[in-house]
Amino acid sequence: CAYLLRYPLYQLGNPQLRIFRPSWFLTLVRPGKEQPQDTVQFRIPMEMTKYDVKNYLEKIYNVPVGVVRTRIQFGSNKKRNHLNQKVKQPDYKVAYVQLALGQTFTFPDIFPEKERAPAEGSMEEMQEKFMEDEKQRQKLDPRRGGVTEWFGL
Amino acid sequence: MAASSSTGRVLTLCKQFQNVFRISSATNARQRAVSSAKCQTSLLRGTSPIVTPSWSNPISSAGQYRALHTTISRRGLEDFFDSPENWGEANVKSGAPWTAKQLRTKSNEDLHKLWYVLLKEKNMLLTLEQEAKRQRVQMPSPERLRKVERSMIRLETVVKERENALRLLQTGQEKGRPGAWRRNIFGYVYWYRFKEYAIPWYMNRRYKRKRFYTPKFVEPHIRLRIENYLRERARNENLKKRRLAKLQERFPQIKAPAS
């Protein structure tokens, strides 16, 4: 694992440090602000550097990476809980990766609306039927044009 | 490609299917790439195992396996997302996590490849989780994250066991990182693990401030600590004896429990 490890000290002339089985995980996030077409936004662990991100993406994901820029996002320490103690949101590092070779990337819509018909004889079907009946009962009289009983005779 | 890779992913994660798929039609070719350890290692000699994902190896050896064709998955950034059929589903099926017993049967190359498969799966699940939080929607089957984490931890333990055994056999060293028993300023003796420095210890000012010895003036405090500890231990034993005596008085037929 990459964290909790004491990496060997580097002095001039030492061999290149290689990490086997890295335990660093990247999270692709949808950008909050509008980013150029070739920029992908990641949340990366604090210990990773720009070179680490570049090598990671090139070697493991086979993605041609041009430039990587990173920044550290401070997680707020302002909110307080019911005991009036400050609650800290964790800090995280954000990497903006620009793809090489003119590639573009748009964040896809991962939760599209799907028409879901519940399975026959299942709980979901019974629940949906029940909800529909309830709604039907709550509806006002269509013969009176949906007007309440407060008016009229 | 998407379908087979998704099923390939399901199979890496749920290993009970391995034996089932050993002898089956060629359509399940790519999934079997995961289970056939022998063939993979023989084909991968000379190539770096880091880049190619495990389901990418063409298997053409004789024996139980038919000739298959697989392509290296060049999906790039698409690997951060599930296959498009699973987008918008409420539940995504996944199998059981790897157990240490099952992992011990695998070769080192297989474990290395499995680590990267699990790593990519975890990245995908983390992206999904974050996007679900962003869209204020429930993440489908969050237990997959826990399963992948557990598999990775078990893989790590298996690899550490193997490294330990190898080191013991080759060098006789019990611990990978050298250390020593040291006494700190407060009189406690603990296992201090050595750290690598560029300069010797007598030139290291911060290290010398740590003081791996107990000064004379700390001895009364240590004596007090020992006294308190002995007092508490005596108190607990007396309490036990008194409780037992009271029980004997009330219920004379009780046999004293062997403790």
Automatic annotation (TrEMBL), chain A:
Main location: mitochondrion
Example of a GO MF term: structural constituent of ribosome
GO cellular component annotations of the record: mitochondrial large ribosomal subunit
Annotated Pfam families: Ribosomal_L23
InterPro entries listed in its UniProt record: Nucleotide-bd_a/b_plait_sf (IPR012677), Ribosomal_uL23-like (IPR013025), Ribosomal_uL23/eL15/eS24_sf (IPR012678)
Keyword terms, alphabetized: Mitochondrion, Ribonucleoprotein, Ribosomal protein
Biased composition (Basic and acidic residues): 126-146
Region annotated Disordered, chain positions: 117-153
Gene: MRPL23
Source domain of life: Eukaryota
Family that this chain belongs to: Belongs to the universal ribosomal protein uL23 family.
Organism name: Oreochromis niloticus (Nile tilapia)
Protein name: Large ribosomal subunit protein uL23m
Automatic annotation (TrEMBL), chain B:
Transmembrane segments: none
Major localization listed first in the record, in broad terms: mitochondrion
Keyword Ion transport on entry: no
Localization, UniProt: Mitochondrion
Taxonomy, superkingdom: Eukaryota
UniProt GO MF annotations: structural constituent of ribosome
InterPro entries for the chain: MRP-L47_sf, Ribosomal_uL29_mit, Ribosomal_uL29_sf
One GO CC term on file: mitochondrial large ribosomal subunit
GO biological process: mitochondrial translation
Alphabetized UniProt keyword annotations: Mitochondrion, Ribonucleoprotein, Ribosomal protein
Family stated for the protein in its record: Belongs to the universal ribosomal protein uL29 family.
Stored PANTHER family: LARGE RIBOSOMAL SUBUNIT PROTEIN UL29M, RIBOSOMAL PROTEIN L47, MITOCHONDRIAL-RELATED
Protein name, UniProt field: Large ribosomal subunit protein uL29m
Gene from which this protein is expressed: MRPL47
